[in-house]
Design brief:
about 20% strand; about 35% helix; alpha/beta; 8-stranded mixed sheet; 3-stranded antiparallel sheet; globular; about 290 residues
Length: about 290
């Protein structure tokens, strides 16, 4: 059996009702609103997020401990933000007892492994209170993203107001509303090579995962995956933090999510097989597919 979309308890279309969060959101504002709700309700006392770095659109891990810090970290950066490096420090230097964490699928593999085998992570695993995941096909090293944008849009990153991947294109919007759409076949050479051995598109190991694929502009597809995630999600919906629609009633719907998840698995499984043929297969196991 192929666990293309992972295990989940609910899947739906959603967007936040918080206008301040939605105004600057990448899509439906799911991650920012969930962490804001969790902070207000003492579910977490801080969250490790991809904040702004020193360079334009550079992702840099940060511990957000209030709403303003969450707002400062909004929007997808599309380059590597090593959020795992702050996990231990969040509990030691920041003194967090209930840690929120957001990451792409590869980060969550490391985080869950650290919970099971807490080597050099003493007293950390039991403080992970809420894990949010983001759909991810691949990311770019920072310098590669600079070259991708500047070479193919003739724009400096400083002038970019938003980047997004969808409908087969990497789209770059500037502050002056100029829009350039780059076919994804052009972006492949800029991708982080490590992404090509990842078989998870929808963040299977999160408590709640979300992404724009499957829902109309301004909305997100949300998978509620764990009992803990469901308690948080249901509480936030009950307090009016989100408006929702059945996923069956929106376009393009879950079929597109399944299609892209399958494409990632199929493509990257070939990379795994090629590496195994080189004699390095012993350490590369497929955690999501039965054999």
């Amino acid at each position: 059996m192929v666990l293309t979309l992972g295990n989940y308890r609910q899947v739906l279309a959603a967007r936040t009702t918080d206008k301040e969060i939605l105004k600057n959101a990448q899509d439906g504002g799911i991650v920012t609103a969930l962490f804001a709700y969790a902070l207000e309700n003492d579910i977490i006392d801080g969250a490790i997020v991809a904040g702004p770095g020193q360079l334009p659109w550079q992702g840099m891990p940060m511990v957000a401990m209030n709403r303003q810090e969450l707002l400062a970290a909004q929007k997808t950066k599309y380059n590597i933000s090593p959020n795992m490096k702050l996990l231990k420090e969040a509990t030691r230097s920041f003194g967090l007892e209930k840690v929120g964490f957001v990451g792409v699928p590869c980060m969550l593999q490391g985080l869950r492994k650290a919970q099971v085998y807490p080597i050099a992570m003493r007293d950390v695993p039991d403080k992970i209170a809420l894990v949010l995941g983001i759909f991810c096909m691949e990311v770019f090293p920072y310098q590669s993203m600079v070259q991708l944008v500047e070479d193919h849009t003739n724009q400096k990153l400083e002038s970019v107001s938003k980047m997004e991947i969808g409908k087969g294109k990497f789209t770059v919007c500037t502050e002056r509303c100029a829009v350039t759409a780059i076919p994804l076949k052009v972006t492949h050479k800029y991708e982080q090579p490590g992404c090509h051995v990842c078989l998870d598109y929808v963040a299977n190991l999160s408590d709640i995962s979300s992404g724009s694929v499957g829902t109309p502009d301004g909305w997100s597809t949300v998978f509620v995956r764990t009992k803990k995630g469901e308690a948080v999600w249901n509480g936030a919906v009950a307090e009016g933090w989100f408006e929702t629609q059945p996923i069956e009633q929106v376009k393009p719907g879950l079929d597109l999510v399944t299609k892209l998840a399958t494409e990632k698995i199929t493509k990257n499984k070939k990379t795994l097989e090629e590496r195994a043929a080189l004699g390095v297969g012993k350490g590369l196991r497929n955690p999501y597919l039965s054999t």
